[in-house]
Specification:
Layout (H helix, E strand, L loop, with lengths): L13 H27 L2 H31 L3 E12 L6 E11 L6 E10 L11 E6 L8 E2 L5 H9 L10 E2 L6 H21 L1 H9 L8 E4 L2 E5 L3 E6 L10 H12 L5 E6 L3 E6 L16 H14 L5 E9 L6 E8 L2 E7 L5 E5 L2
Parallel strand pairs: 3-6
Antiparallel strand pairs: 1-2, 1-4, 2-3, 4-5, 7-8, 8-9, 9-11, 10-11, 10-12, 12-13, 13-14, 14-15
Helix pairs in contact: 1-2, 1-4
């Protein structure tokens, strides 16, 4: 067999460039789909991110199976080789990568020169020296894949100890010819296009989820020194420092702002603390019992809270919470006061008339 000198495998062929571009696209698309799906909690995106690389790997395996089968069917050839040069690269393990330049002299084919890289154990490294003869193995159709046999048969080991191999002139074939930057740029381009493809095809899942799932941002309410957020099920208003829901007009203003955004939907529960108001709205079209949050007895709330804090035996009251619900069919206000002396409860009806007191 004639082995042309200096004929390593060609890199950056159109097929390899296309493969690099496609691989970059798959990586970009799968990572974007998986991470985006986890963030917005969309199962189709997560499944796409997991399935896409698996399908690509399977297709690649099946497409390259015939070539790998042909290569595996080739019987490797054993020969003697002389070490023209070697250079050990510093490693952090017991095996260090070594660059060998060899003159290979097959018994029934022309000699050739090849450059390879192979990991060698530190203990065995002194056994390899320039002008030394070693036993190698290589596929006849791919001589650039020559490998040094660490444990040759006794027959070949004896031949290597007695043989003399002449140096082969000319350039050496290289197994690791570096790919050009153009291939790297194509891979990067494929990655970016993969990311863009996911963002375009799944823009509804990604961006609508980020905006609240309906294609528009969740409504919000705000007024001086306070902030509010309204979702499909709840509404929340938080007052700024120095303000309280017990201040005149604050509770009414907060409730009406939330009710206006929610299209006058009924409320299941209203929970109020000193600077926080939360309204739980009834589902759209639901027949469950509810009440109009604007029907609260605003003028009585501050007095009821003060009565609960001062007359129910709670020493040094630290916090209070008012809960209004209409689950039983009629609106009930329940004020819970907590302090160093325990917890007390005061209940009132929709007009603010006290129904029950439970002292600490």
């Amino acid at each position: 067999m004639t082995v042309p000198a200096g004929a390593p495998p060609t890199h950056n062929t159109p097929a390899e460039l296309a493969l690099g571009f496609l691989t970059g696209g798959v990586i970009g698309a799968s990572l974007t789909a998986f991470i985006g799906g986890c963030i917005v909690e969309r199962t189709p995106l997560i499944v796409t991110g997991l399935v896409l690389p698996a399908v690509y790997g399977l297709v690649f395996f099946l497409a390259t199976l015939p070539r790998r089968a042909r290569e595996a069917a080739v019987v490797p050839r054993t020969a003697l080789a002389m070490i023209e040069d070697l250079e050990a690269v510093k490693g952090e393990t017991s095996d260090v990568p070594v660059r060998f330049e060899l003159s290979v002299a097959p018994a029934d084919a022309p000699a050739f020169r090849v450059e390879i890289r192979q990991d060698i154990n530190l203990v065995e490294l002194p056994d390899y020296r320039v002008r030394g003869v070693v036993v190698v193995e290589y596929p006849p159709d791919r001589p650039w894949k020559t490998r040094i046999m660490r444990r040759p048969t006794p027959e070949w080991e004896e031949r290597a100890a007695k043989a003399r191999v002449d140096s082969v002139p000319g350039p050496a074939m290289k197994i690791d010819t570096p790919a050009g930057c153009f291939g790297g740029l194509l891979t990067l381009l494929g990655l970016l296009l993969g990311v863009a493809a996911v963002l375009v095809f799944f823009r509804t899942d990604l961006f609508d989820s980020a905006e609240g799932g309906s294609g528009a941002p969740e409504p919000s309410v705000s007024y001086s020194s306070s902030t509010g957020v309204v979702t499909s099920a709840t509404g929340t208003v938080t007052l700024g420092p120095g303000r309280s829901m017990l201040d005149k007009g604050e509770l009414r203003k907060a409730v009406e702002s939330l009710a206006e955004v929610r299209d006058e939907r009924q409320a299941l529960t209203v929970v109020m603390q000193d600077q926080l108001l939360t309204v739980v709205f009834s589902p759209t079209g639901a027949t469950a019992a509810g009440f109009d949050p604007r029907s609260l007895p605003y003028d009585r709330v501050a007095g009821l809270v003060e009565e609960a804090r001062t007359t129910l035996g709670v020493d040094s009251p630290q916090s209070w919470q008012l809960t209004a619900d209409g689950v039983t069919g009629s609106l009930t206000l329940r004020i819970v006061v907590t302090g160093g002396g325990g917890t007390a409860i005061l209940e009132a009806d929709a007009q603010g008339k006290v129904l029950r007191r439970i002292g600490s």
